[in-house]
Each structure stands twice: as structure tokens, then as C-alpha cells.
Amino acid sequence: MRHKLLTVIIGICAFSMITFAFSADSFAKKRVIFGGGPAGGTFQVVANAIQVYKPVKAIEEFSVKAQTSAGSVENLRKTNAGRQQMSVVYSGHVWLGRNGQMKKDPKKYENVLAVAWLYGAPAQMVVRADSGIKSVKDLVGKKVGVGNAGSGAFANCELFFTHMGVWDKIERNAMGYNDAANAFGNNQLDAFWLFTAFPSGAVIMAAQTNDIALLNLDADAEASGFNKKYPYFSKLAVPAGTYKGVDYDAPSFQDSALWVANSKVSADVVYKLLSIIYTDEGLKHMISQKKTFKNMSLKTGATNIITPFHPGAEKFWKEKGMLK
After folding, report:
1. Is the pTM of this model over 0.90?
2. Which residue of 50, 121, 181, 279 sits 20 to 30 Å from the alpha carbon of 295, by its own alpha carbon?
3. Looking at residues 295-312, what average pLDDT do you find?
4. Is residue 106 reached through a cis peptide bond, with omega within 30 degrees of 0 on the bond before it?
5. CA 88, 90, 93 angle in degrees (round to 5)?
6. Distance between CA 291 and CA 37 in Å, rounded?
7. Which residue ranges form the domains of the chain, and what is each CATH number?
8. Could you report the per-residue pLDDT of 42-85, keeping only the tens digit for each?
């Protein structure tokens, strides 16, 4: 009798546990992994800002989880594979990847679709003001921070420096922006490269320990034919006074940072997030996280994008009158 009773109790417990497991699973939120970037970079600020925004956290159907990454190139590959549902990727990498033109990588990354334009990301080359370095060509034999391996900064540095003929003639140090700024401050680097919106916290940090200068990268790009060869880059200048001691405009070139999503992500998920972020309150929240996002708006969200939109984004931007 006791054996039968024990068997019944065990059966009830097992049934309860299975029922609870299925119930918990049915109520569990789907998780949307949003790929950001390395510490000190704006990519990670984007992911974090969307994750912590209260109306996003209040969504019942799914949750957003910000995830660090090496940057643009890693985000392109992970988003294409579905290991990240959304991420920030440079427009140039989305275009190159879609057309199978990534360096030493002929694969076509066609599962990465555009959601929105976020901001322009310019190249910045930091040197000491008294270094005598006036051009990228002057970096030959120098110790240079070139961005995290796998990041957009690293890929664009390799692209530009190879074009300039100096990539194999410098002592390359692959590291994130904050680490590069620290190494620069400790005289372990002669210069470091960034490909991110300004003002950059890493450059601000570097300017606290050294008198810095920014190279005129546009002059190098124009004289070498770089701008003609890679037309998805556009001209701009880092304004005078952006960084301590840099009292002149520093001409450069920029790519655009895009919010992208895997093609299999539900159109409703993409549409809902855009509907929350691209409101007056949502855009104010983004700007409160970093002033870089001051140009985010309904008018700019569908601009500067030359690759296909995600269906959820296409629906949103058409409703707003920004796409035909």
C-alpha cells in the first residue's frame, strides 16, 4: 500500500513539474539579442539605450538584451547567422557583405536588412600635438592602435591604411578605444584610430593626459583617390573645440551606422521597436544617453540607406511618409 501511495505521489510531482515547465515556457518572453560593440564605443550605447528604455522594457511579447561585441564586422556575421537578432553595423559593411566584397570573405550576407539610419561615424586619428605626424604616411614605423579585431574600426583602418600603403609598415595594436586611450596616455602608442561618432569619450580621456592633434584624413583620402574608390564614404569635419586643445576643424570622412535586423525577425517586432523609439519621448531618451544621437529623427531614419529594408521597417517608414 505504501509503495502504491509513493508511486502516486511521485507521479503527481512529475506531472506538476512538467506542467509548470510548459506553463513557464509559454509565459517566457522571447529574447531579442541586440549586438552593440566594445566598451567606449557608440555601438554599445545604442544597444544599451534601447534595452533600458522603460517603454521597451514594458513590452509583453519580447525583451531586448544588449550584447557586447567586437563591432561592425562581427555584428554583420552574427546577425546574418541569426545569433543576434538585431545589431549596429556600418552601412559600408552591410553593402560590401551583401555583395560578397568583404576582405578575404566572398560570402554574401543577405540576411542582414536595414531598420534605420542612426548617425554618421567619422574616422578620427589621434596623435600628440608635438609628434610631427601630419599625415597617415608619417605613421610608418610607429605604434598605432587600430581598433578591436573584428570591429568596423579595425576593418576600415585596414582598408584605408592598405590603400595608403602603410598597413604593413606600422606596429599594429588591435584594441578597443578606451584601452587605446590608456596606452596612448602611458606612451605605449604613438597614435590611435577611431571610427565612431564625436565627441568620443576615449579621445576626451586622451586629451586629459596629453596635448593632442587630429590628422586631416580627408586630405589623405582625396589625394590618394580613396573617396572615388569607396563612394559610400562621405566628407565631414570634426568641428573645432570638440576636444580639448583641438581648436581647428579636422576634415575627415564618415560612414553611417545602421540599425539592422536578421531577415527572419518578425516584422511586428521591428515595427513595434521603431514605433517606440521614433517618438518624441523615445528620441529624447536616446539623446539623453549620448548627444551623438541628436540627428536621429523621422526625417533621417530612412535616409542614407542603399540596401534593402526589413519588412517591419519598410511598413513603419512608409506609414510615416519617408518611403514610397
Report:
1. no
2. 181
3. 94
4. no
5. 120
6. 18
7. 30-120+257-319 (3.40.190.10), 121-255 (3.40.190.10)
8. 899 999 999 999 999 999 999 999 999 988 999 999 999 999 99
